[in-house]
Amino acid sequence: MNILITGATGFVGRHLVRKLKKDFSLHLLVREGSDLTGLEDIPAFCFKEDILALRQYLNKEKIEGIVHLASLYIAQHREEQIKDIILSNVYFGTALLEAASKSEVKWFLNTGTIWQNYESDSPEYCPVNLYAASKQAFIDVARYYTAVSPLRFMTLKLCDTYGPWDTRTKILALFKRIAETGEELAMSPGEQQIDLLHIDDVIAGFRVLIRRLSEEKEQGEEYVLRADRPYSLRELAAVFEHVSGKKLNIIWGGREYRLREVMCPWKRGTVLPDWQPQISLQEGISDLLQHN
């Protein structure tokens, strides 16, 4: 099966490509200037705002499915970043949907975020930030394309992810740095909870949904991947200290909670069938430290 992947240069994308290329014929959709180091063996199409050329590529390569990971994540945006957020998270995907809906592509697997739901116990859409709002906007756009074409569209909402070779400045990367340097890290009071999922469990979820889509078992559904339980930042720091054997020099309460801080991750939504996390937080942190 021929699958097109966007966002292959990101953390999740690189891991996904590495695992999927053993079983599928992969193609990458990239933007100009993308760093394809380590991905040189995968055919790539550079999107230059030409939707017709993209549609012709999809047909020529007989692309059957699309995994859409590309996005621009900004937790708290500035005014000058609004255009880039919309271009990356709404326009780029819409251009791809336009091309896919007029080609032989059968399914489109979109990646969402639990940050589209600020209220932990509510099923209603309530974005944490503009990034999450733009992710929902794209899903709304997709409803038009599934109404006017046979394209099957699915969204897989992810919680926070972690694992080896992660270059993002996420919380575990900060813990690892201060464990090595001994420097102080000013943090919020640390009572907010975080749902962390190891990258191998995330990739397993994508594989399950790709299989279900290829078997034509899914249409217009939305699933969630989440860990067995959330941890407060204080609990997360304690687990990291236990696994690493190093004390973290954290100043709890050294900074305020940010605007619309998520104190408890979203608890609603349907967890992906035929999937469950396999890697505990302790095992995942150990794996992270060994590989990095």
TrEMBL record:
Gene3D superfamilies to which the protein is assigned, alphabetical: NAD(P)-binding Rossmann-like Domain (3.40.50.720)
Record domain NAD-dependent epimerase/dehydratase: where: 3-223
UniProt cross-references to Pfam families, sorted A to Z: Epimerase (PF01370)
InterPro entries: Epimerase_deHydtase, NAD(P)-bd_dom_sf
Family: Belongs to the NAD(P)-dependent epimerase/dehydratase family.
Protein name: NAD-dependent epimerase/dehydratase domain-containing protein
Species annotation: Odoribacter laneus YIT 12061
Biological classification of the source: Bacteria, Pseudomonadati, Bacteroidota, Bacteroidia, Bacteroidales
